[in-house]
Prior knowledge:
By secondary structure, the protein is of the alpha/beta class. Helices cover 44% and strands 7% of the residues.
Amino acid sequence: MQQKYYLEGGKASHKLSSLIDDVSSVKLNYSVLKDFLWFSTLDPEMTFYEGVYRLPYGYELNTNGNPVEVWNPFDIDVDYSMSYQEVIDGVRFYIEKSLKKLLNQDILACELSGGYDSSTVYMLARKLGSDPHVLTLAFKDSNADERRYADAVLRKWPSDKVHRIDADKIDYADRYNMRWNYKLNPHWPIWITFSMLGPFFDIAKANGIRRILTGQMGDHLFLGTKDGLWSWLHMGHPLRFAKELSYLPHPLRFCLSGAKKRLKSYLKPTIEDSKALFVSTLRYSTLLEKEMIPKPTFAELHTDHTFCCADKKQMLLWLTNSSFHMSRYSSFGRALYEQEGIEHVSPFEDRELIEFMLSIPPQYRYGKGNPRYLHAQVMKDLLPTELQQRRKKAEFSISVWQQMATIDHDRLWEKPVLVEMELLQKETIRRFQQAYKAKKFSNREFQMYWRMINIEYWYALNPYLDKSEFPPNPYVLEST
Length: 480
């Protein structure tokens, strides 16, 4: 399931750098940058470079260098004759089969956050006879700290090769700074921070580790959000909405709370009545009230952006057009592969596992108020009790705040390239900057501000882009 990039004319590679190393400079794709800034996502076939594209999953290049569809996951039918036990046994079988393919390296490591996915990968690897290094982070912040769950896993499967990093002591100012981020991965503006995982990079190099196993994308196979159900009403499918609703444990409570929330958003004043639904759905906050909402380059992103707890089509968005693409291809794992050849892989990417998950009857995905109920049942014999009873995911924004604290925000926004490109107004940036200093951010505002910062750094530090039209941010160049 490894991504391929290609140029107009047919040249293709798994490494984006190898396609443009022979080109003196490439043009920035402004429409892609705009989509990323405002919506944290982009067209699944595009990159930030003009004339450089990616093949979506399910596609290959033919002998003429043109994309050809070889696999369409939407064609897989749900097998409603499947029993619940057949589902449990099948999921376990395909996860183990996928993992066996990845255990053929002599020196392996497993990331162990303490979540369902990373714990599953580590425990199954041990059960299958592997003895990998363990990479784990410790946070003092209660919202991010998952030590109790990781420790429960390690009590069940002890290891003498555990590398525990104190996340609060990571050197964001000098060792793992923004320059380090974009030296490791110059092609994609990041949307979290590589620096949180930077010590893993050094541990892998010091111990000769060439493959790191991760639980990435388990969410996309097992976890769904109930809010995604409302997309069926937005798209005019009330019967489908009712069917999906029947899988929830408290459908009436869900409808009442959701209707109240959406009624408030629809009654908010908007710039143009004809765009009321669009603006009330996509506008981030009052911090952007005076900013003209840019039109997306393609509408499909914003009608099918979420996925719900049971529907196959919604679950498949990470294969086609969701914001998953942005997180995946700007990820730490992609950067490790591009620059160092260290694989950062997940058994949840396996095509056979995905095909089986797509054939599961939707009523088996959600149970007893736990959106990970199916996963918990599949791993019931291995997951510690503490993990089986877990309901909430950790929240890692503390690492972003720590890295943001190393930046001189006043200097950064003296000559922002975002304003020169007319992607934002100077007054909008000033409002975000004030909100940062006061720490009065909503989660979405915080993510928007972090994207703004990363675009400034990425553009200035990218060695491939033609910057003759817009000079990069002088503070970024001086500070690095």
